Request: fold
Amino acid sequence: MGPVDRVFVVVDRELRTLVRNRALVAVAVAFFAVVVGLGALSRDAAGGYVSLTYDLLLVVEVLVPTIAFAFVFRSIRGDDERGELDVIRTYPITRLEYVLGVFVGRVLGLLVVVLAAFGIAGALASGSGGAPQTFLATHDAGDTVLVYVRFVLLTAIYTLVVAALALAVSAGTRTTRGALAAAIGGVLVIAIGLDLALLTLVSSGAIGGNAIALFEGLSPASAFRGLVFELALGPALASEPGDGMASPLVASLSLLVWLALGLGMATVAVWQESA
Reply:
């Protein structure tokens, strides 16, 4: 059995675990309901794909880290507490193969939920009619399905990055309580903490105006947001979103670094090769 085969054995095991976990099924249903519900409201408001993208942007920044950590934070930690990790280590499988298998399996389950929810929301928003809802965004310039497709693809990439960080938390903690505390902290840091830190540095004058675009792309959430505005919303709007968004290059490199950092930390922390 080669390395790829060993990875997919773990992938299959993780997918079976996800399907049997009723708590995760409930989380997935709640996420699905929120996203699809917003899609239905956007259809009633006749706002189109740009409007729906605006409406879902904050949802993605907050709920994607939440569902990603819910799906991933007990993966490796649960194996360790049940004694299954000790059994796995007796097989000819490396730390990297095991971590990649867990990551791919959990991410496949995550992406099924995320992409299905956003796909149905987009299908609902493609219709129109009903009385406008004033709390929903409404923008008409250049509104095409391509705007929404780009947004969904960027959301999938953001999901991968957050899942990798959640896996690092699962591998690096030693108890379920510690993993839960770290998961809650991770969601808060990714969703709002790093952005608040940047805002504090800017307001205190530690970061000048010319450097904001560089630092704006350093956190996963702000990098994702910057790419959405630059690559999805920007081309569709009659006017550019503004100069405060992250550089697409910086944002892309930032997400790549966070992905590699999460997987690397999980691989190092999962177990010692000499043990």
